[in-house]
Structure formats: structure tokens, C-alpha cells
Amino acid sequence: MLESIDAELKLVIPGNHDLDLDKQYWEAHCDDLEQHTSAVSTMTGRLAEEAGVSYLVEGTHSFTLKSGAKFTIYVSPYTPAFYDWAFAYERNEDRFNSPRQVADAVTSIATEPIPDGVDIVMTHGSPRGTLDSCLGGNVGCDNLLRAIRRVKPIMHCFGHIREGNGIEIIEWQKTATGQSPPSDVNAIH
To answer: How many angstroms separate the first and last alpha carbons of the chain?
Structure first.
């Protein structure tokens, strides 16, 4: 399917249903790593390459387009734990901010925190309060919201909550001193 899409870049990350792509999940639940290894090979192998697919692991990546335009993108497949799915973390754990940037009563487990100055953020999960409403209420991540407000990317793409599909345009506000006020966003629906 992805090979039929006419795009210069096709960036892909896994999500909570991609059990066989999460090595940590697979090691905890299965005796044999062969399926995990095969799944990763499918996403990174010859067929993916021929389709122009770039399977990205958590962290920051840089790309240069044919036009010469350059951008950095931070990606993460992780979402707050929900039942027993892949790429999960607890709500009192922060994968996106360094220890000096976390909220009270939250522990940073970030091995690749979202860096300041990144252009685009692509996560499987949503930040709390942004296209994250479902039968369970707003289920997005407070820690991801904290990181997004800190780095103010040009674009943040995510898709975990199917009921929360859509687009929301955010304008980052600045004060006269250039600092963001506590309520630093205007959502345009």
C-alpha cells in the first residue's frame, strides 16, 4: 500500500498495536524473538526500501529534501499504558522531558527527550486535551503536552485515538519579553 503513495518521504513509526515491533514487549510476553526480528526486518528491509518507507525509531532524525529544504523530526511510538499493549509507559513516567523538565511527582525515563529546536514531532500518542477524546474521556499524555509546549514544533502529528481524528491548528503566543505565558496556545478549529 505505501509504495502506491507518491511522496518523497514516507516516515513510519509503530504504535501500541504493533506488538511484534516492540522488543521489550516481545521479550516479556514471548519465548521466541524470531517474529520480532522478522517484523523489524519487514519494516526496514528491501521491500520497505523499494517502497520508499523509512521506519523510524524513537529519537531525533534529520532529513534533506530534493529541494534542499532541511528539517529535524522527533519520533516516538510510546503511549501511556492501556491494558497490555506495546510501547507503553506509566502516566507518572515521562519519556519526553529530561529530569530537570518534568512535573512534580513524575519521573523522567527519557532516553531520547524531545530536544528544543526540533521542527516536527511525530508520536503515536496524543498530548492531553488535543484530539484525545474518547469514551474514556481525554486520554492524552500530560507529559507529552508539557514537552510540546516547551519545544513549540512547527507541526505535531499523532494518531493513537481514532475518535480524536482531525486537525487542530495551534498558534504559539509570546509575551513582550518573548516568553510564553502559562496559557500559551490559541487553538483554531
So the answer is: 31
